[in-house]
Amino acid sequence: MSREAVVQGQLDAYNAQDLATFVTFFDDGITISDLNGEPNLKGLDAYRERHEGLFAQFPQNRAELLSRIVVGNTVIDHERVFRSPDATPFEVAAIYSFAGDKIARVDFVKA
Question: Where is the SnoaL-like domain (predicted)?
């Protein structure tokens, strides 16, 4: 599976709030960080727990892909995130790095 297909697969599962499928795209040692910041989450169990809470709190949450760049082992998505139909959307850049065929690190830039 291509890097782009992996990132698209996790985005599709995220939008479906299919937690079981969503976490299959991530390495067991997944690291999450704000760009140029210290990691704020490590490990697949912690990542699963975070999204379980997110999906419960925002059952209509979804991310709309605005653009995608693939450069070697890195995929960068620019997304608009909607927590609910009434909430003001916000934008993020998600920078996905890989270990093997799974996402090993995500660095976020939030606007």
Answer: 7-106
